[in-house]
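Trying the structure run again after the queue cleared.
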Amino acid sequence: MAPAAADHNKRLNTLEGAPDPFPVLGEEAPVRARDARDALNTDSHSDFPSLVSSTPAAQLPPKSAWGADSGPRIKANVRSQPTVSDSFTLSAIVLPTTKDGKPVSLGEVMKQVMSKFKVKIEASANQKARQTTFHMKAESEKDLEKAKRHLLSFLSPVVTLTVLAPVSTIGFVIGPKGATLKQIRDQFGVRVDVPRKETSTSNGTFHETSSGPASPSVEVDAEEEPTLPITIIGPQPLALEARDMITSIVSARSSRVTQRVKDIPSHVLPFVTVLRSHFLQAAQGGDIQLTLNAEREVVANGDREAVIRVVEAIKATVQSYKTALNHLKLSLPKRQHRLLAGKAQEDIFVKSKCSVIVPDAEDPSEEVTVYGRPEDLSSGLGTVMEMANSQYIHVFPLPGPIALSRQLLTYITRINYSETLNARHPDASVFIPSAATATEASVLNVDIVGEKSVVDAVVRQMSELLGKLIGATKEVPIDWLSHEVIKVKNAEKLERFHEVDNVQVFFPPESTQQSSVLLVYDPFSPRASPSPVEKEKHLDEVSQALLEMAKEVADIKTEVLPIEKRWHKALIGKDGNILDFIIGEDRALLVKFGVEAGDPSTEDVVWLRGIRSDVDSAVQKIYRVVEDAKEDAIASSYFTEFEIDKEFVGRIVGIQGVNINKLREQFNVRVDVSDEVEDKEKEFSKRKKSATQKAKLKITGRKENADEAKKRILTQVEKLADETTETLKIPTQYHASLIGQNGKYVVRLEDNYDVKINFPRQSGDNGEGKRELKADEVVIRGGKKGVALAKNELLEALDFEKETNNTLKFLVPGRAIARILGRGGATINEIKDETGAQLDIERSTEDKTADAYVTARGTKDAINAAKTAILAIVEEVPEEASEILYIEQKYHRSIIGPGGQGLKDLIIRCGGPSDHKLQAGLVKFPRQGDISDEVRLRGEPGIVGKLKDELENKVSVLRDRIVVAVEIPAAQHRNIIGRGGQHLNDLQNRHDVQIQLPGSRGYGQVGEPSNASEVKSADPGDVVKVSGSRSACEAAISDMKSHIKGPVIDGPTAVVSVPLMYHDAALQQGALFRTLRSLGVQVEQSIQRNRPTFPTQPPQSVNFNARIDAEGAPEADWQVKPNYQCAEEGSSEWTLKAIDAASLERAQSEIQVAIEQAKDKTHIGFLTLPDRSVFPRLVGTKGSNITRLRNETGTDITVGRENNTIVIVGPESAIEAAKEAILSQVMASRAGRR
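Done. Tokens:
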């Protein structure tokens, strides 16, 4: 072993000290290295040789540790002298310390080992190489190995290694009854922890948490079976040996493996991928998954034997195609290469069984290579040419000199304009030059591929954009080192450049180290000016502002600090508070940690860039924070160990560690719980089965915090040791009384005696684990004294309840419940007060008329008296009958009548009460919105029977009802209604019909008339609907007509021509016809318009989904359209019949005025608000406010009834004024509500 140990010692000098033996749970504790060039390789067996003795057989002379071979100096037949020897060299020795912190000398360590194991040890130190060589001699190889491990355990740093082993291999690591695991622990003197299967992870790699990464011996992927972390803690060389042994067991027993076939040639890959089913057959039924990575790599994952067979088949296939395939080369213009990439290559292979390789876009070569079998190459060549000419390609050169072309390319690249074009023209593909091409090419071209018509559309759109960009770009020279600092320090100013000057600022990526900034006058902004002078002005203003910013940060400094990764978390702080302190208030400093700094070789760096003074200040702060963290780590290395009974561990730790986590957070300590029983305790427990097992707790942290946490735990253990549990048998009916309202009685007992009382309803959280309490069990837990006192008081309360809490349950009919309760519960409360009993009525929530149970609680005399009083009330309530009728919903309104009057009259006619309170409940119709035809009757049998017959008769009449329309001039409707509606009510009652006049609420609900065709040409305002039986409708119509004054006879007439274009505007929403009727003038129109005069509302352009009170939420959507653009041509001849010449002349004047006003209504505006909440105030009382607005602005204003839109018609200036007036009122209304 001597040569291996010497090589091992040459590299161990990188360790300056041992790692923290108590790292924070779940974190790594790396060992600090002196020089990255001599980094310690923990996987090297030359660094950490096997600890199995390398001494040859007894008959061979041992090798000298000093470089020459020599035989044994003592004769072999002298048994008292050593017969086995070994040598090894160590560097960076870590000497142990005493309890008071003083280091133990190397000589004392050697004496302890020699006295314990009967060996001789000699040590020789090389001060220059900082190495110590040990030569050991012993009588037996066993003694030599034990002494050597013991010595290494004293002098080597303690490390923690982790091996992630698949779940299926854990049994082999543990061995039968733990034999394998015990052998590993005994052989190497290390601690090996195997967690339960619940802690498995899906990551299949090995980890080393303190001394570097461990190399995996089994190649695994994230989709493998779950793994468990096996933790090894011990001296570094011994822990590495133990890890290797566990790794070998895992490797031999892993049920699943992953293997890769890498670097498959590009031209062979298509031939391999199509043979997937063939490769799966090679698995011979084994479970296997095949995946193809982007790196031309096939990954096989599954059963070991199946994976091996499949991988061999893939490798053989690849090799055969390498030799069997021929190739042809042809030259094609670079732009056609785009038609041979991606999916096109798959199509070529499917058609011709040949693969095609196209050079990268950055490669200037135009050669395309076709691979295939000799007999397929001609077909492949033809397919390639066909594909290369399958689509139209347009080469669009970017305008200007190359400098301008590059600016334009940078802009369209940064705004992803190619994606915009592809999205707008999905049948075209747009390809822009790459960054590498842009730096070398003298002309920059954009390739556009697709059908010619689509390509032409893309070209037009590109040309339009580039035309706007001419004179709209400018480059500003600014040192690239200051770019990030400028962006951080002036973020708000850079945003305002776009808001104020319409200029966008594009900084190049930091990786390009390009010292120029591109300014672009935004061509897409609605505020963009087409003037070149305006563009240049804004670009110059922004350019000057940027140069001023660059001057402010001209003194840029970059600093890279060698700070170990373990201190990075301390520099960031909780929620980044420490990092904010380091950066400062103006936040003009850039800080990166580890690999973010740009050096992938190390993570032990902190990178800073900013103004020199800021960087220098931050460096001082960083070193100060790191020093504080190191001092804190030293102060937190104190630990205390103690034991508690194992039975209390679960309660101390808490569910999912909640209790122990509270201690960790409160005192900032680490608490480790070990429930392993030491060997001596195991032997002792074998001799004495009743011995209490112990668990060891170790608390690490600052001394005062660790001691306080220990004190808390021991105090809790004392309480748990004194804890006892008592289970009482208490009948369920007494539980509610013993618990009290809102648990007040139980809470009082728990507070008084410091106990926990659980009733069965609380069994889910009573600490009983999974055992549920029986219905009559009550559990008391706590200190012995407290439990006894609480038990006595609870039993005394139970005795009292048994005396006073008798229960009696009896049934009462549903008809009597209302009388038992009384108004507002007055009756039942009176019974309670008189008898002293507690009464509960269990009523059905669905059927209020169902019978109910009454439960009486109290003394026997009280509950008997309460029952007697309730039954006496029941006797006073007469018997009831109930019926259910099924009446179609469409008849319900007719039966109920206006204001329910029809139903009230029906009940009175059937002998029911006239008091509406007593009528309630006799007849119940479904509630509004319920889809049901059930009508329930409940009450005295005689009345219920009469109501049933009357309702059935009424329904039969309603089912025979018809609707008839009659034309009655609107001017005569007032005569039909009469004063206060008296005449109309008399007509309806006299003929048993319903009469609906236009504009009434039920007009649209009564349905279409049977004679609708007869009144089709009549003015809708003149059509009156009558519903009832046919004979009744005819009689009512005849009666109505008798009250109509005769038509105008022999009056003057005139004809007025009204253009159809102005028809709707002239009517003024029917106001003109109403004016003419008031003058006694009838109108007959020759023709009706076929399409509306006013245009329809365009689609809404504003999204109102945001909250109204949110910042920047839109106030309204305003759209204006011209009138009469698509209006109908021609005129309608209106024939006017008047009662006299004066009325006729006035009517003609009104019509002409209306037409002239309609001509002025040239525009229509649609004002859409976020909601309708302000409409009532906008309209005003009886429309007063909206009428005022109409008069003031001279416009027609219509407030939508079913949407959020207000329509304004009039001259363009007038509708704008009306819009502003409405919005001002809307804003004032909202401000008032706030």
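The chain has a mean pLDDT of 79. Worth checking whether this holds up in the mutant runs.
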